[in-house]
């Protein structure tokens, strides 16, 4: 998502865009996007500072780090970015910062559900689907 600082009106503006996850290089071994990432940003300019309140919505498929099952999750997050308005370089590309923010948040999101029971360390059974007959030690 790009902003042109010379085109921000006094009252600010709202931008909406659907970003191809490939262009953000967001996919990792554990996280795949199942569609476009919806980005909504409220842009404001105060003297020479530009702020963006960004809201992200994405449908992801994650591989649960406990039970290794794939699960769909709705990823939703908000972030605030700020830039210095440079009249000589009016275009600001926020993609890199958005990507960095998401990458920082990612690792805690790779559970199929918050209370995933994981796999039995002895027989490998998915304990979300029921107990196994291994003795608990
Ligand atoms: Zn799981
Ligand atoms: Zn077991």
Concise summary:
The chain is mostly beta strands.
Could you explain the architecture of this structure?
- The strands form 2 sheets. Strands 2, 3, 4, 5 and 6 form a 5-stranded antiparallel beta sheet that branches.
- The protein has helices spanning 21-24, 95-105; strands spanning 2-4, 13-19, 31-33, 37-46, 49-63, 70-84, 91-93.
- A hairpin with a 6-residue loop joins β5 (49-63) and β6 (70-84).
- The chain has 137 residues and is mainly β.
- It has one domain.
- It is built from 2 helices and 7 strands; from the N terminus they run ββαβββββα.
- The longest helix has 11 residues, at 95-105.
- Residues 120, 122-123, 125, 132, 134 line the site of one zinc ion (ZN).
Write the H/E string, N to C: EEHEEEEEH
Q: Give the fraction of residues assigned to helices.
A: 10-25%
Strand content: 35-45%
Oligomer: single chain
Form type: elongated
Q: What is the CA-atom radius of gyration, in angstroms?
A: 20 Å
């Amino acid at each position: 998502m790009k902003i042109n600082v010379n085109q921000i009106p006094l009252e600010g503006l709202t931008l909406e865009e659907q970003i191809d996850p490939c262009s953000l290089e967001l996919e990792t071994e554990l996280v795949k996007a199942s569609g476009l990432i919806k980005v909504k940003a409220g842009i404001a300019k105060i003297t020479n500072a530009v702020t963006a309140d960004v809201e992200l919505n994405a449908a992801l498929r994650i591989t649960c780090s406990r039970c290794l099952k794939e699960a769909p999750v709705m990823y939703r997050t908000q972030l605030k970015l700020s830039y210095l308005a440079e009249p000589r370089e009016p275009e600001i590309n926020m993609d890199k910062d958005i990507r960095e923010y998401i990458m920082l948040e990612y690792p805690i999101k790779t559970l199929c559900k918050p209370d995933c029971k994981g796999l039995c360390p002895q027989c490998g059974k998915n304990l979300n689907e029921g107990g196994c007959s291994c003795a608990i030690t």
